[in-house]
Design brief:
It is built from four helices and eight strands, in the order βαβαβαβββββα. The N terminus is likely disordered. It has a domain of 139 residues. The protein is α/β, with parallel strands linked by helices. It starts with 21 loop residues before the first strand and ends with a helix. Helix content is 17%, strand content 20%.
Length: 224
């Protein structure tokens, strides 16, 4: 696996056919999973495959959503990978298969931030550019004023020192502090590029600027 890209939203790219990548998308049919199976398949079919990308969608089995049949094989030659903002098995008590282990440190270790629930619950939020990120190539063509987040803000503070925030969300009609909703960092000895965003609700995926952000993110992760 050359690069890692973690996000709650779909991964998509406008790379030319000669730069087509092998994209693996992990999804689970879950009422709290932002309708990922539907939105991911729609994007893969309409925006990824027509560009020449090979897309493999791995579904978590039910009623054991931590089992992803075919994932190990798919990762062998994957370029970017899409998953959620937590490990495949986030809590030790959820381990059912003895051949698997939990990874509760995933969010801090890989994504560079904790995941301690919602700062707001069900409130829409406005989006602005994080200080210092105005000239980031990941925000090229993205107008934060056009983005109204449809779901709750995640509690992700404090961010790791090596995280580069891109976007900040502020809940409307609420006194909760603003929260980073998109950032980048690198992970591991190979400096794999990691992009994270909590944008990814079905309503978010209908916003052109959100899709542009994701396009930019995939392009960024695929750079050598």
């Amino acid at each position: 696996m050359k690069h890692i890209l973690f996000a709650l939203a779909l991964l998509c790219s406008l790379i030319t056919a000669s730069q087509a990548s092998n994209i693996v998308i992990m999804v689970v049919e879950d009422p709290n999973n932002y309708e990922a199976p539907r939105t991911m398949r729609d994007f893969a079919e309409k925006q990824l495959r027509p560009l020449g990308h090979h897309v493999t969608i791995i579904d978590g089995d039910q009623p054991q959503p931590h089992h992803f049949a075919g994932l190990v094989e798919a990762l062998q030659d994957a370029d970017p990978v899409r998953t959620a903002n937590h490990a495949f098995i986030p809590k030790p008590k959820e381990v059912i298969d003895p051949s698997l282990v939990s990874w509760p440190e995933f969010t801090d270790e890989v994504l560079g931030a904790p995941n301690t629930g919602y700062e707001t619950q069900g409130l829409p939020y406005t989006v602005r550019i994080a200080p210092g990120a105005e000239n980031s190539p990941l925000l090229a063509g993205v107008k934060p004023a056009n983005i109204l987040g449809a779901q709750s803000l995640y509690k992700v503070l404090p961010l790791a020192a090596d995280v580069t925030p891109l976007l900040i969300g502020t809940a409307k009609t609420d006194t909760s502090p603003p929260m980073p909703i998109a950032w980048t960092r690198t992970y591991g000895s190979k400096k794999a590029r990691v992009f994270y965003t909590s944008l990814g609700a079905p309503e978010d995926m209908e916003i052109a600027d959100v899709r542009t952000l994701l396009v930019n993110a995939v392009n960024w992760t695929l750079k050598p």
